[in-house]
Amino acid sequence: MNYRKYKDDYVHPELLRCVIILTLFTALSTDLFTAPLGSMLVARIGCKWAVLVGAICSTLGFGLTAFCNQVWQGVLSYGILAGKSSCKL
């Protein structure tokens, strides 16, 4: 298949721009909300226990992803639970 034909038929610039903006907004806004939670957790229970909580949440998120039947379940388990807890490790 010719790339130019594929691009003309399937790639819509307005939709692509919207997806990029929403992805960046979601990534940046969730980090802004979870970073204070992570630092508060470290201040209250210590670094070792905060990492342990992050590892447990990350493992739980990856494990729950195996049982997902719908997209929203994958977003919750892999994207939010595993993703945000992995970046806090």
Description:
The protein has 89 residues and is mainly α. It has one domain (12-87). 87% of the residues lie in helices and 0% in strands. It is built from four helices and no strands. It has helices at residues 3-10, 13-45, 47-65, 71-87. Helix 2 (13-45) crosses helix 3. The longest helix has 33 residues, at 13-45. The protein starts with a helix and ends with a helix. 8% of the residues are buried. The model has no long low-confidence stretch (mean pLDDT 77).
How are the SSEs ordered, and which strands pair?
Layout: H1 3-10, H2 13-45, H3 47-65, H4 71-87
Helix pairs in contact: 2-3, 3-4
Summarize the entry for a quick read.
The protein has 89 residues and is mainly alpha-helical. Helices cover 87% and strands 0% of the residues.
Average pLDDT reading: 77
Helix-strand string: HHHH
- Percent of residues in helical segments? over 70%
Rounded to the nearest angstrom, the radius of gyration is 18 Å
Number of domains: 1
Q: What composes the largest sheet?
A: none
